[in-house]
Structure formats: structure tokens, C-alpha cells
Write a structure and sequence with these properties.
This protein is α/β, with parallel strands linked by helices. It is about 55% helix and about 15% strand. About 25% of the residues are buried.
Length: about 475
């Protein structure tokens, strides 16, 4: 009876092992067709080889006996089999984790793509709105029965729509630079209190139009610090404009600056922007600082914006080494808190003299510009200030005019950068290399739509004395010209 049981166990083992071999061959083929398992191929082959040995061992015992030798071989083979299977399982787990990471990246990419699709839809609306105003009010201003007062009102509305469109373009360009890692800070001594009050003054009229009470408080015994004034002002304007947008009539908005600590070399400053507006829901707060995100409610959908302001603000604060946090309750309001660690700076106003209006009478300027519209606008603005303007249609033309003019004939050159035949950088270098020292030393100012920090450095590297960004801000242009002329 015992011998019969042993024989049955052997035959059952033979059948089961043959079935295992069949199942494993199918399994290995199925797995390898689902991806690139070239590195794991040897692990798949080892179990097949060992299973075949087990099968032959069972057959040998059944036919010839000698179970002791076969069992020893099976035990050794089993150890090898377990090792191979453990290695294979580890590789499989690694592959599963890698797939999970890839899946997470795909989900993130799909979410970003969805956000950008929504952004483009919103952008289409946000760009067309000011464009419609510009085109519409221009058509109205051309009417034959329009009074001078009405025309002035139309022009003011066209200017407002143009600035709104410029803000949208700036947001898109700024976000593009942030995503490419090219945004840089220009740290200079500045008065934080002045920056705070300046930002508040810029939005005060807008808020007064909605009967919003704007309060400003500053408690900073050491307000001078090394900071990027333009970027900080941009961040503050984003927060204040949002506060004004999302706060109803007779609401309140507050802006405060507080010095947390100062050791003479550096200080920590806290800036708070709070409002009594509509607030945000908790779900949206988690995505507030993500690019292209806007809260999708019936109230917010009627408010203009690209969904980039908060992402830009956070990146500016992060780049400064600071932090920004937000608390918000729907129907109660929102409060942003910025903490900035900044290097100390000296008060630069102590030795500053009183600023006088520059006199440009008798100043002759060479304007190098290939765009007819830009040439017409710049010429009119310069002539209004009493400046005599001569024109060059490209860089090569500008170099030739300077080379053939009498020394000192041109007091200044305003140089566009992107021009045919010879660009502004090449033209500036050519002028600086002229043999006549007086001609070569004429001040050159870049006046261009290339308005980023590296563009300003490129202009300086080409030998230029200043930089004016387009669209032209008249006050900035006149101050830059006066500085270049040492007036």
C-alpha cells in the first residue's frame, strides 16, 4: 500500500510539474510581450531550466529509484529557483513602480494640458475684449459728429484697453520665462515703504471707483534693503488688483509692511494684503499658485484675468528667497502674507539733489527704426519735448549717417534692435569702432521691444548707454535720455 501511495505521489508530481512548465512558459511569453524585458531575459530562462530539472528528477525516481540523489538535487535546484524568483519579483516590482511614476507624470501632463486649454480659451476672451474696445472706440472717434470731449473720452478708453492688453502680454511672456528658468532678479537698494505706498497709489483710483476703502500701514524702522523693485512691485500689484477685483462695493482692502527683525546686515520683512471680498473655496486654494488656473464660479468667470498672476507672484517671492501663504474663507475675504529676507542697504536719498526738468531744446537725435508706425510715434513724442529728430531706416543707415555727419552733430542715437540689413547691436558696435573719437563716443540708447534683463545686458555689452522698452513710457524715455545727456 505504501509503495502504491509513493508511486501515485510521483506520477502526480510529474503531471503537476509538467503543468507548471506549461503555465510558466505561457506566463513568461505573456509578460515579455507587454514591454521591454531584455535585461530580465536571463531570469525568465532560469526557472524554465530548473523546472525541467525537477521534472526529470521526478521521472528518474519513478523509473530508476535512487530518491536520495534526486531529492538532494531538487533541494539545491529549489534554492536556486527561489533566488531566481526573488530577483525576478524585485525587477517586476521596480518595473511596476517605474510605470506608476510614468503614469503620475502622464496625469500631471494631462492636467497641465487641460489647464492650458482652459487658459487659451480664457485668453481668447481676455485678448479680444480690449481689442474690441480699441477697434470700437477708434471707429467711434473717427465719426464726423464727434465732439472734442467725446473724442478725448474715446482716446482715454483706448489707452486703458491698450494697457490692459499689455498686461496680458506681459503675464504670458513672464510665465514663459519662469517655466524656462530664465527669470532673473535685478537687486538694487530701494525703500520698501516707498514701494508699498507707490503700489497702493497705483490702485487707489480703481478702488475708489468701487467705493473700496484702501488702508496702508508701514512699521519698518529700516526700510532700505537690496531688492528687485520692479519684480516686488509686480507681485504687490497682482495681489492688490486681485483684491480690488474680488471685493465688492463698500468693501475694505489693506496693505501693510512690518519689520520682523534686523541685525544691521539683513532683515526679515512681512507684507500683508487683506480684503473683505468673496474669498476662495478650499479646493481652489490648493491650486491657487498653479499656472493658468482660475476659480470657475459664476462670479469669478465675469472678472478679467489670465490665471497667471498668482503663479508669477509666487515665483517672484520664491526667487527672492521668501515665502507666500494665503488664508481665505468664502464670503469673508482673503489675506496673503509674504515673508522676505533681504540684505540691508543704505539710504541713497541723503546725497541726492533736487530733480529738475531737463531742457532738450537744440538737441538733435538720430532715430534708427525700421517700423513706419514706431518711427512716427517716437518722432512725434520726441519733437513734443523740443528734440530735433533725424531718421535712419536700419542699422547700416544709422552708421553711415553718424560716419558722414560732423562730430557732435548728433547728441544722441535711439537705436531699435531688430532691424533688417544690420541690427541695433551690430550698428552700435560699428559706431563704437569708428576712427573719429567724437563720433564713436556719441551716446546710444536701445529703444526696443526686447525688454528682458538679458536684453538690457546685451545692449550694454554692445556699447549702448541705456535701454528704453517698448511700448514707450514717455516719462521713462525722457529720464533715460536726460541721464544719457548728463542733464
Amino acid at each position: 500500500m505504501k509503495q502504491i501511495v509513493i508511486q501515485l505521489m510521483l506520477y502526480a508530481g510529474i503531471a503537476l510539474m509538467a503543468y507548471n512548465i506549461y503555465r510558466y512558459v505561457r506566463f513568461s511569453r505573456h509578460v515579455r510581450t507587454g514591454g521591454n524585458w531584455e535585461k530580465e531575459r536571463r531570469f525568465f530562462h532560469v526557472p524554465i531550466f530548473l523546472l525541467m530539472l525537477f521534472f526529470l528528477g521526478y521521472v528518474s525516481v519513478a523509473l530508476f529509484g535512487r530518491p536520495d540523489l534526486v531529492i538532494a538535487g531538487i533541494l539545491l535546484g529549489g534554492s536556486i529557483f527561489v533566488l531566481a524568483m526573488l530577483l525576478l519579483i524585485q525587477r517586476t516590482v521596480d518595473r511596476i513602480q517605474e510605470n506608476e511614476r510614468l503614469e503620475a507624470k502622464v496625469i500631471a501632463a494631462e492636467e497641465a494640458s487641460r489647464a492650458k486649454t482652459v487658459f487659451l480659451s480664457n485668453m481668447s476672451h481676455d485678448i479680444r475684449t480690449p481689442l474690441n474696445a480699441i477697434i470700437g472706440y477708434t471707429a467711434l472717434a473717427r465719426g464726423e459728429d464727434v465732439t472734442s470731449e467725446q473724442k478725448s473720452a474715446f482716446i482715454a478708453k483706448i489707452e486703458k484697453a491698450g494697457r490692459q492688453l499689455l498686461d496680458i502680454v506681459n503675464d504670458v511672456l513672464e510665465m514663459s520665462r519662469i517655466e524656462s528658468g530664465r527669470m532673473e532678479l535685478e537687486m538694487h537698494p530701494m525703500n520698501l515703504e516707498e514701494c508699498i505706498r507707490e503700489a497702493a497709489d497705483l490702485v487707489r483710483t480703481q478702488m475708489e471707483g468701487k467705493h473700496i476703502r484702501l488702508s496702508v500701514s508701514c512699521d519698518a524702522p529700516h526700510p532700505w534693503a537690496q531688492c528687485d523693485r520692479i519684480r516686488l512691485n509686480r507681485a504687490l500689484m497682482n495681489l492688490l488688483c486681485n483684491a480690488g477685483k474680488f471685493t465688492g462695493e463698500n468693501g475694505d482692502v489693506s496693505l501693510s509692511l512690518r519689520e520682523l527683525s534686523h541685525d544691521g546686515k539683513k532683515g526679515d520683512y512681512e507684507i500683508r494684503v487683506a480684503d473683505t471680498g468673496i474669498g476662495m473655496n478650499p479646493e481652489f486654494l490648493e491650486k491657487l499658485f498653479m499656472p493658468f488656473e482660475r476659480e470657475r464660479t459664476s462670479t469669478v468667470s465675469k472678472i478679467e484675468g489670465t490665471g497667471l498672476g498668482m503663479a508669477i507672484t509666487k515665483n517672484i517671492i520664491d526667487l527672492m528667497g521668501g515665502s507666500i501663504s494665503v488664508e481665505s474663507r468664502q464670503g469673508k475675504g482673503t489675506e496673503f502674507t509674504i515673508i522676505l529676507p533681504l540684505q540691508a542697504a543704505r539710504d541713497e536719498r541723503k546725497n541726492a539733489g533736487t530733480e529738475e526738468r531737463a531742457d532738450f531744446s537744440g538737441v538733435r537725435v538720430l532715430l534708427a527704426e525700421d517700423s513706419t508706425i514706431n518711427m512716427e510715434i517716437a518722432t512725434a513724442l520726441l519733437q513734443r519735448a523740443g528734440i530735433m529728430v533725424e531718421q535712419a531706416v536700419n542699422g547700416e543707415d544709422a552708421v553711415e549717417k553718424v560716419r558722414t555727419a560732423a562730430p557732435g552733430y548728433y547728441r544722441l542715437i535711439l537705436m531699435d534692435i531688430q532691424m533688417p540689413i544690420m541690427d541695433g547691436y551690430a550698428a552700435a558696435r560699428a559706431i563704437r569702432s569708428l576712427e573719429d573719437g567724437d563720433r564713436a563716443a556719441v551716446p546710444i540708447i536701445a529703444m526696443t521691444a526686447n525688454a528682458f534683463a538679458e536684453d538690457i545686458r546685451a545692449a550694454a555689452d554692445a556699447g549702448m548707454n541705456g535701454h528704453i522698452a517698448k511700448p514707450i513710457d514717455v516719462d521713462t524715455m525722457m529720464k533715460t535720455i536726460a541721464d544719457a545727456l548728463n542733464q
